[in-house]
Amino acid sequence: MSVRKSEQEDIKVLNIRIEKTTNPKPLPTPENPLKFGTIFTDHMFIMNYETGKGWHDARIVPYQPIVLDPAAMVFHYGQEMFEGLKAYRADDGRVLLFRPDMNAKRTNNTNKRLCIPELPEEDFVEAVKAVVKMDEAWVPTKPGTSLYIRPFIIATDPFLGVRPSDTYQFIIILSPVGPYYPEGLDPVKIWIEDDYVRAVKGGIGEAKTGGNYVASMAAQVKAHDEGYSQVLWLDGVERKYIEEVGAMNIFFKINGTIVTPMLNGSILPGITRNSVIALCKEWGLSVEERRVSAQELVDAYEAGTLEEVFGTGTAAVISPVGALRYENRVMQIKDGSIGEYSQKLYDTITGIQLGKIKDTRGWVVEVK
Ligand SMILES: *Cc1c(COP(=O)(O)O)cnc(C)c1O
């Protein structure tokens, strides 16, 4: 095992081998719109796992295709996980990460559920920092832009049969991005899905894995055809209670109280969700994590107390919801304008991420 544990932060334990590209790509120009997830940087991080040997051979290499056996288990049984976080460029030029320790923790929660071997948290953070440092020049500077970081693990045993793989690759790729929604903080239209379901308690809904996304596509396509940009899922058993949006957790302001579905085993525990709850509590708002039925939203809407609706996630940070469709009813939220707390949360979180607002919570980690 080349991996040793270390108590101290910033002590490097991975012994990352570095092979620099001899053929760097041109950096995107500032006028480039940086369509989300379409451009990748010059390098990537890779580390291998083998039963008996542990995680080993950490390396940063030129960005390139990976060669896998067509029988590799990830293709057939979906044993894979992923994470998503961003590096931000502060005004003074520093490169900042937002709560990467939370991504490292969540990685291991996902891994446990999917029978993927544990990855030491400090190794996850060290690998992220090292590859971001290598491609630091790719962290864009324009407002609203950042470097999206996509760590993932795939099962690589060439084997047709269902069991956990004995070999894996942990890979990190980087993509400079503009705003997730090209329309910016403009409110999105959301379709509450009451036919298809995404996840059930006891399933893999709280794991960050591709399986949850392929399960969501048919409803996503249906919602798009109806003119809605995202699907809001109901619980998989009764199809009554609100769970989350495709890649975002969901919040409501009902009669002055901030309400969000509690983590029940089928909802992804978002880091933005966690940060929003912490900030709202600090601001003295009453925050409730509990079951929320679609009917409760309809009732609040009719009573005029459904004051704000917004999604939370790394990609968009805060995504105001302007319309919610449930059964045959369309609920217009705030006449399509942005809610006070949606805006305040967006400004505060992005302010902390960009180093404009003092970080008093230990959420920001500099890459140096
Ligand atoms: C990643 C993800 C989220 C948002 O999590 P953040 O940590 O806030 O980015 C929400 N729902 C699903 C299904 C996700 O995969």
Gap from first CA to last CA? 26 Å
> What does the main sheet amount to?
9 strands, mixed
Number of strands: 18
Strand content: 25-35%
Q: Ions, cofactors, ligands: which are bound?
A: pyridoxal-5'-phosphate
Based on CA atoms alone, the radius of gyration comes out at 21 Å
Helices, by number, come to 8
So what's the overall shape? globular
The chain-level structural class is alpha+beta
Oligomerization state: single chain
- The helix/strand series, from N terminus to C terminus, equals EEEHEEEHHEEEHHEEEEHEHEEEHE
What is the typical, i.e. mean, pLDDT?
Answer: 94
Helical fraction: 10-25%
Low-confidence stretches: 1-8
Describe the structure in your own words.
The protein has 368 residues and is of the alpha+beta class. The chain is 23% helix and 29% strand. It has eight helices and 18 strands. The protein has helices at 73-77, 100-114, 121-134, 210-214, 217-225, 271-282, 294-303, 340-353, and strands spanning 17-18, 43-50, 54-62, 80-82, 85-89, 95-98, 146-155, 167-177, 188-193, 230-234, 242-245, 249-254, 257-261, 287-290, 306-313, 317-326, 329-332, 364-367. The strands form two sheets. Strands 1, 2, 3, 4, 5, 6, 7, 8 and 18 form a nine-stranded mixed beta sheet that branches. Strands 9, 10, 11, 12, 13, 14, 15, 16 and 17 form a nine-stranded mixed beta sheet that branches. Strand 5 and strand 6 (95-98) form a beta hairpin. Helix 2 packs across helix 3 (121-134). The relative contact order is 0.14. Residues 1-8 have low confidence and may be disordered. Pyridoxal-5'-phosphate (PLP) binds next to helix 6 and strand 15.
